[in-house]
Specification:
Two copies of one chain form a homodimer. Chain A has about 400 residues and is α/β, with parallel strands linked by helices. Chain A folds into two domains: about 170 residues, Orthogonal Bundle (Arc Repressor Mutant, subunit A); about 220 residues, Dna Topoisomerase Vi A Subunit, Chain: A, domain 2 (3-Layer(aba) Sandwich), CATH 3.40.1360. Helix content of chain A is about 40%, strand content about 15%. In chain A, strands 10-7-13-12-14-15 form a six-stranded mixed β-sheet, sandwiched between helices. In chain A, helix 2 crosses helix 3, helix 4 packs across helix 5 and helix 12 packs antiparallel against helix 13. The first copy, chain A, starts with a helix and ends in a 6-residue tail after the last helix.
């Protein structure tokens, strides 16, 4: 299926070969939902790269200008889909052609990164995007020109390839610095090791960057829901107090903005195991934003939304109304600064924050002029957050959607 | 024992009560090694706090000026002990007295943080230093004055208490944001869960911040050595290639400068289980410094050196001589910048880098004018680092001490 789509695009693009300046095709007025390819995983990614490479080779053999079609990753090609409730990319693409002076280097870089990923998949290995940068970096023979000078160059090309190949970077064998930990009533198989996630001690299971089915198999999951906690330190309080046991849930943190591995695992727990996802963050604009990325995806990585976003995720706190509800002393609130106010107003304007309750929530923060960290609850008692705050929020269904 | 020492200091300090300006006693010319208290753990910490509090209470009841003696944490009271090969604190202390206008607030903060830690220990809980800040923060009744305004205030007091009570913050129930992962032929008991560290999948065991004997019991360890790897992404390559299995070792990373939990665990593996420790870092001044902190401890946290430093740790790479030895292409070296040069020269001047081999190593970097990241080895092959580089370095005993 996915292969067919690439082939179809190929035909369309042939026509634009006539314009060697490489003008991008205009963004379609009506954005259509990008189809999720039915296949996925490293094998799929490898065949996608092969198809990509064959096209280049075929053009070269015919004496034509080899070119690649890369979906446009720009705000102009991104929109919030109100029906699916995620941030999606449109269908606009750009041609990257070899015989165009302004595109030749990028073209070369794209094929190099593609070849690097293909080699990685052949060896059945995974690596970091920094490592791939080094793998692809060399001085072109007979010149003093490097294929890449900075990692930013290869990072951009990786994102291009993710979209063009309809494969997450994890499927291409690439991972980010892992962050985040998890415990709860689950048994997984990770690279052949069976791991009982109720027996992970104080540290928890370090969530790897690649959590796709071929690496992490969820063998058993009897939890009723998942709580994503913004900070590792607060997560630790939940683990120490055995919150996950008392409430039969999975608790996970992502050390701030959760990394891709954590987001993808949330997605899997929600979509494959039907677990509701609750997000527990600081009451500040950055907390709202963490929630928003988990729920709708982000603008810069819109092409991943379908594989990452959990549109049903619920914001369980902290809310601007909690200080009053839970009688939090003023001394532990923090005055918002200019940056907070600007960010809160920006977020209030996002299409996906237009629900009345959300407008109230953000207006309340702006009106009170204070923000609140999760740790502020410790002014009442070290375990107030696990014994009183969250149980009461859950019982009263006191969350935002 | 430890209690006695505190009592001894108490007597000495009584004399300085005559100087309410709180002048610090002069640093002793000859620095004596701070004795390691024989007792340790939370029970020890609790009794230390009680002794501290009793002293304050006794003075108050007698109508005297309550005061606390805090060892001086300043460069003037820190030195490299060439015999024990760690950075140590001297015996200078400062008096913090309640009836001194310039010290009253700090005195109050010190007792508050002490009380907070005592409460934490009573509840047998642990928490983050941020959480403790919130726990101790309130508006003083009848005033508009807060006990603490910024976390930096309570952080400093925590370090003071660590030294004064001769207890690591972990023993006071405080932890830092956990970072780092580990795998290898070990079985540990973590909070009652038995964990086989050969069966941790791709993510590894997330090293918690508190790894003291009462939390983490090392039940079995058959490894021959430990490799501390600077970066999580490179550690992952080692894990994926099962380096730990092929070389019967423990591999651990600390996500850059290793956090206290990782350092303390290295200490335990070295001192309790006799494992040699090898440090594998980028070839740049920051890599040298990571090695140095693991080995000798740091100036700012000199009071922890005895419990954290591994003076026998070996620097296995990357060395400034490796580019030539391993035929690394120029394209993947990075030109040093001004900051690198300044830092390298600083490090070259440290007393603990005076060995001839180290001077050569640093001089070579300065002469070549380039630095090298671990990932640069991937320009040869993704697994060059695990299959060729490190095995050869180990075989040839090609390391620095």
């Amino acid at each position: 299926m996915a292969k067919k789509k690439v082939l179809r695009k190929k035909k369309v693009k042939r026509k634009t070969d006539a314009k060697p300046s490489g003008a991008s095709s205009p963004a379609p007025k009506k954005r259509t939902k990008r189809k999720k390819s039915s296949a996925s995983g490293p094998a799929h990614a490898a065949s996608q790269i092969d198809a990509f490479a064959s096209k280049v080779a075929a053009a070269a053999l015919k004496g034509e200008d080899p070119s690649l079609d890369i979906p446009t990753r720009a705000l102009s090609n991104v929109a919030f889909n109100a029906r699916s409730r995620i941030i999606e990319m449109g269908d606009a693409t750009q041609t990257r052609s070899f015989f165009n002076l302004g595109q030749a280097k990028k073209f070369m870089q794209t094929t190099l990164v593609g070849a690097g990923c293909r080699e990685l998949l052949r060896q059945e290995k995974t690596t970091s995007i920094r490592d791939l940068f080094y793998h692809c970096k060399h001085t072109i023979e007979g010149t003093r020109e490097n294929t890449f000078d900075e990692q930013t160059e290869s990072d951009v090309v990786i994102e291009d390839l993710e979209v063009a190949l309809e494969s997450l970077r994890e499927e291409l064998g690439l991972f980010a610095e892992p962050k985040g930990a998890l415990v709860g009533p689950m048994v997984i198989e990770d690279k052949g090791d069976t791991i009982d996630l109720t027996r992970m001690g104080s540290g928890g299971y370090a969530v790897p960057s690649i959590v796709e089915e071929d690496v992490i198999r969820i063998k058993k999951c009897t939890a009723d829901f998942v709580v994503l906690i913004e900070k590792g330190a607060v997560w630790r309080r939940f683990n120490e107090d055995r919150f996950w046991k008392r409430h039969n849930c999975v608790i996970v943190h992502g050390g701030g903005q959760p990394p891709r591995g954590v987001r993808r695992l949330l997605w899997r727990l929600h979509h494959e195991h039907g677990l509701p996802v609750f997000v527990l963050v600081d009451n500040d604009p950055w907390g709202y934003y963490i929630y928003s990325v988990v729920k709708q995806g982000s603008i810069s990585l819109a092409f991943e939304s379908q594989r990452m976003a959990v549109p049903d995720a619920k914001f369980i706190g902290m809310s601007s109304f909690d200080a009053e509800k839970f009688d939090i002393p003023d001394a532990v609130t923090i005055r918002v600064n200019e940056r907070d106010v600007r960010r809160a107003k920006e977020i209030r304007g996002y299409p996906w924050f237009q629900k009345k309750e959300w407008q109230k929530e953000i207006d309340r923060m702006l009106k009170l002029g204070v923000k609140l960290e999760l740790e502020a609850l410790s002014s009442k008692d070290f375990s107030f957050i696990t014994e009183t705050y969250l149980p009461r929020k859950l019982r009263d269904e006191d969350w935002l959607d």
